[in-house]
Specification:
single chain; alpha/beta; 2 domains; 11 helices; 14 strands
Amino acid sequence: MIAEPGQTLLGINIGGTTTSVVRGTARGEILARIAQPTTTDDRETYLRALVAMVRELEPHPSRVGIAVGGPLDVTRGMLIDPPHLPHLAGFALRDRLEADLGARVSLHHDAAACALAEYRWGPDAGSRGLAYFTCGTGFGTGLVLDGTLRYGAGGQSPEIGHVRFAPDGPRIFEKPGCYEGYASAKAIGLLYRYFGGEAIDSPAVVDRAAAGDERARLALYWNVRGVGSACAMLIDLLAVDVIVLGSLATYLGEGWIDAVREMAASEAIPRHLADVTFRAPMPQVQDRSGLAAALDSPGILAP
């Protein structure tokens, strides 16, 4: 889809913790933003609040993009058993919001939409192989390969979080040892408990690691190992050029990114690794992901 450079777009980012709505332009500029907690107890109440947020920023929107965690079917515009958004499972979210808003709505996997935003507006815009790892509530990946956003023939989103990383570990998706149980931001707290600690959240684990708590440091080590392994897999399998590490890179900084790169270096083919850029997301990438989704139909990247 082609948009005029100054056209106003609405972008929605539905995360496991927060839902945000932004008004912005086809250049990726954010003009206004509002946010609220993502509630999952009642779908209709949540959807009414979401529509109200959109109307607050733009009473009569024409183009709206949704970035949302998967698994999902972008062809039908619905989520398929999303672990963090159970109230939206099997629900035709795109069609419902088109009807409620009277606007053209595009829906993308959140990692894919972030990858698309980085490809359009980030410091490595136009890269032939760009991977975006969410590293947030979940652990997903979006891939832009030779100018095409990757989805399956049936609209399936890539779901690296479901792939088994270790024989055992925190149980997510009823599957112990998957990447999401090690490499997401939430996994740091889960790993701390898995290694015998009490139930505390990930920021508290990070604080304890900084204070010298060995169990907390072990949890962080395995988090880095999980992320680094996932990076190495895509480096060798797809020869990606750019790896953007999401929320954890923003919160934990360059030291964490360097540790992930070192872990990837222990597994990836050296020649492949030499040409790969590792970095944190560009500013406001999650908000810009909704704007990128508004510009592009799933699977098709506009010139």
